[in-house]
Amino acid sequence: MIMDVPRTQAQFPQTKWSMVLRSQDRGETGQDALAELCQSYWFPLYAFARKSGRNPADAEDLVQGFLSKAVQDRLFIRADSDKGKLRTFLLTAFRRFSRDEYEKTVTQKRGGGNVVSFDAMEAESWYGESELADEAPEKTFDRHWAITVLENAVQRLAKDWDARGKGSDFQALRPFLTASGSSEEYEAVGKSISMKPDTVKVTIHRLRAKFGVALREEIQDTQTEDDDVDSELRYLIQLL
Fold first, then answer.
1. What DSSP character marks residue 132?
2. Residue 136: which of 48, 54, 56 has the closest Cα?
3. Which pLDDT does position 176 carry in this prediction?
C-alpha cells in the first residue's frame, strides 16, 4: 500500500464490478477473484474497525472473521451492481457483521484460518501514521478506500511496464505521478535510467495521462452503470 499518493492509452480490460462477478464462479477463477477482493480491500475495513473503538487484536480478528464468513457464505454472490457502489456494499456488510455476528463467528485462534496475509504490526503502523483524531469511522473507511483505489491504479501501470521489461524505469518515475519535479530531479532520474531530461519530462507527462485513465477505470470497476465516475473521483481525491 502506498501512503504518499494524495495512489496510445494503456489498455486495462476491466468491467464494472468485474472482480465481484468473477468471484461468483464456483471454480478456480472465482476463488482467485475472491482472494483478490479480500487482499485489496482488507485495510479500509481494519481502519474502520480501529476507528470504531476496537483494539488492534480485535480489529484484526474482526476483519479476518468477516472475510472468512464472506468466503464461506459466498457473500459476493448476493452483491448486485445495480444496488450501488462496491465501497458502500462492503462497508454495509462489514458493519452488519460487526454488530450482529462477530461474537458468534470469531472463535478460532488468532493467526489460524486467515483469509488474507495480515501483518498486524504493519497494519497498525499504517493506521497510526494516517489516523485523524476527529474523523468519523465511516470517513476513515472511505479515506483508506481512496488510498487503496489509487494504489490499485498505480499497480495497473506497474504491471504494464513490467510486462514490457521496464519495471525499474517505472519505479524511478513513479514519485512524479502526483508531484512535480525540478529540472535537477529530472536530470538525476534520467541518469539513473539512461534517459535525457527532456525525454524524462515527456515520459512523465504521458505516464500521468495513463495514470488518469487507470484511476478512472479502477473507480469505474466499483461503480454501477448510473454512477458518476467524475463525482466519485472528486470525492476520493477530496478525502486525501
1. -
2. 48
3. 94
Separation of alpha carbons 162 and 56, rounded Å: 36
pTM of the model: 0.67
Report DSSP state, residue 82: G
Query: Rounded to the nearest 5°, which phi and psi values hold at 189?
Result: -70, -30
SS3 track for 207-235: HHHHHHHHHHHHHHCCCCCCCCHHHHHHH
d(CA 113, CA 123) in angstroms, rounded, equals 18
Close Cβ partners of 120 (under 8 Å, ≥ 6 residues apart)? 56, 57, 60
Cell of 16: 464494472
The predicted structure's pLDDT at residue 109: 45
Residue 83 pLDDT? 56
Q: Which residue has the cell 486495462?
A: 12
Of 226, 178, 225, 220, the C-alpha closest to 87 is 220
User: What pLDDT is attached to residue 79?
Assistant: 60
Say which DSSP state 164 is in.
T
Q: What is the pLDDT of residue 187?
A: 94
Among 233, 81, 53, 62, CA closest to 146: 233
For the chain, what are the domain ranges? 18-110+117-239
- Which ranges of the chain have pLDDT less than 50? 1-16, 107-111
Q: Provide the percentage of residues in the chain whose pLDDT is more than 90.
A: 30
Report the 3 state secondary structure along 107-119: CCCCCCCCCCCCC
Rounded to the nearest 5 degrees, what angle is found at the Cα of 75, between the Cα atoms of 29 and 87?
Answer: 95
Inter-residue contact 76 to 86 (CB < 8 Å): no
